[in-house]
Structures are given as C-alpha cells and as structure tokens.
Amino acid sequence: MIILWRVTTRCNLACSYCAYDRRLPGPRHDVNEASVRRFGEVLADYRRTTGERVLLSWLGGEPLLWRPIFEASSRLRHAHGIEISATTNGSTLHVPDAVQCVLDSFSELTVSVDGHADFHESVRGCPGGWQRLRSAVRSLAQARELAHARLKLRINVVLMRDNLAEFVTLCVELADWRIDEITFNQLGGRDRPEFFSAHGLRPQDAVALRALLPPLREKLASRGVRLCASERYLQRIEASAGDQRIAVDDCALGERFLFIDEAGRISPCSFTGAEYGRQIESIRSAADLIGLASRHRDARAAARAAVCSDCPSTQVFGKFSA
C-alpha cells in the first residue's frame, strides 16, 4: 500500500506553475500532528493484519517545513515498521537534523529539479538555489554511503516546452549527483492555467520526448541511474499534449494507493477527494482501511467523478515503471 499525505500547503519557494507558490495570497494549512499519530496506529494495524509493505510519502507545499515531520517519520518507521518517503524542493537538505532523519528513517527521497541553474532558479524563484541543491544532494548521497543507509534517491523533473531541449544534458548532469532514479511529469494546467498556456507541452514536444528517451535511458543505465516511464505513461503525455482524453474505468480504487490532503480527507487520488473522500477520523482500524476500497467503489457507482473521464493520475499510467 502506498499512501501520499499532503501535510502542509506552506512553501518557501516561488514556483511559477504551482498552487503553493509562496507569493500567492490565501491561508496556509498544516496537518495536525495528533491526526498523523492516530492514523499511524491504523497503518501499523493494517501492516500487521495484511503483512503488506506500507509506504507513507509526505507531500506539500514543502513537506520538510512541517515541523513534526522528523519525529513523526522516526516513530512511524521504527515503532511501526512503516516505510517513509517525501518529495521535497531540497531547500532544507543542508540542515544536519534533516540529513540525519532522512538517513535514519526514510526509504526514499524525491528531490525536485526542473533544469540547469538558470532555468531552475528562474522558474522556482530561488537565486543561487541550484548550487546549494547540487551540493546538498551530493552530500546526502555521500552520507548515505558512509552510513550504509538503504535510501533510494530520486530526482523528479517537471517537463515543459521551455526545458525539454535541455532534458538530456540535465539528466546526464544529475547522474553525477549519485542518485538512483530520474522521473518526470509534464507540466499540468490545473494549478496555474495562466502559466500553462504558454509553457505546457505541445504535440511536437511529446513526439520529441519519445524520441530522446531510448538512448538517454541507455546512457543513464550505463552510469547506474534508472530513467522511469512506461509506454502507457508516454501515451498519457502524448494524449494530454494533444488535448485528447483518456478515461479510466477501473483504477483499483483505494486498493494499492491512497491520498490524504491537509484537511485529513482520504481518497483514491488527489483529484477525487470531493467525490470519493472520507475523513481519516472515520478510519479506526485495519478493517476500516481495508473496507475503504469498497466504499470508494460505492461512491463511484453513485456518482462518478468527472475527472475519471480524463484521468491525470500519474501512478495509474506507470510513471515509476521502466
């Protein structure tokens, strides 16, 4: 079971394409630590009952800004045997406590990098951020080796028409950061449609992406780095770039993947909380969590979410497959 949990909507960067850009007005929210503690007990019960691996991945905003994250991660990993992951902008990875917690408690860490220095710093509003990030990731990789820590280091790139031409050279550079995997997703238009219209991938960009991937995958593999993306995932990108819809009628709702938002609403993905979501306070045992899939199916049968007619969930299409 994989569970993604958005624990904060706060962020310290100004990414032009993101709903959590620090420059945007509006309230910011953090998850209540007590809710995480209580639901952690449920996940522990689920793991003992089913014998399944449970991976809990923190999202944001910038999840490493959520103050209880290090204590919560350590407790979940060491007291309950739950594997921990996070997707981060990497801005706090130079902090010794952060590095030690990641090495001690995390199974995976995904760091967001969108291009070489000029592009990355411009699109994310972080002057000087590229060199700091490069140094922090390389130092973490070195510390991992010294500690013999079983930590997977991954880089994720948001692809848009602006940075596609440098994707190959970027990946080659990133391989020198001593990472294990590179993933990517195309710029989406839901968060910031005003940015998307001028920067989203076009059909010709999707064609160019497909052509460059096979030799790039081989080049990275020779350096010990895995470039992820299934054939179905590429088809999803091509369809989106061409404004074509892909409906998904059965995504095994809630059976292998769940999403929890900052308000404590649990749903099959981040796009269906309004239609299928339930408050985690209603999930009090492994039996409740196991039964959630059935309740999600019942909710879909009663009123199918419109987004399912053009599913944008990357995990459904094999983003992390080879």
Low-confidence stretches: none
Oligomer: single chain
Query: Within the largest sheet, what's the order of strands?
Result: 7-6-5-4-3-2-1-8-9-10
Structural class: alpha/beta
Helix content: 40-55%
Gyration radius from CA atoms, angstroms: 19 Å
Distance between the termini: 20 Å
Query: How would a crystallographer describe the biggest sheet?
Result: 10 strands, mixed
How would you portray this structure in words?
The mean pLDDT is 96. Helices cover 42% and strands 14% of the residues. By secondary structure, it is an alpha/beta fold. Strands 7-6-5-4-3-2-1-8-9-10 form a ten-stranded mixed sheet. It has helices spanning 33-50, 69-80, 96-105, 117-124, 129-147, 167-175, 193-199, 203-221, 231-241, 273-276, 286-302, and strands at residues 2-6, 55-59, 83-88, 108-112, 152-159, 181-186, 226-227, 257-260, 265-267, 278-279. The protein has eleven helices and ten strands. The radius of gyration is 19 Å and the shape is globular.
Characterize this entry briefly.
By secondary structure, this protein is α/β, with parallel strands linked by helices. It has helices at residues 33-50, 69-80, 96-105, 117-124, 129-147, 167-175, 193-199, 203-221, 231-241, 273-276, 286-302; strands at residues 2-6, 55-59, 83-88, 108-112, 152-159, 181-186, 226-227, 257-260, 265-267, 278-279.
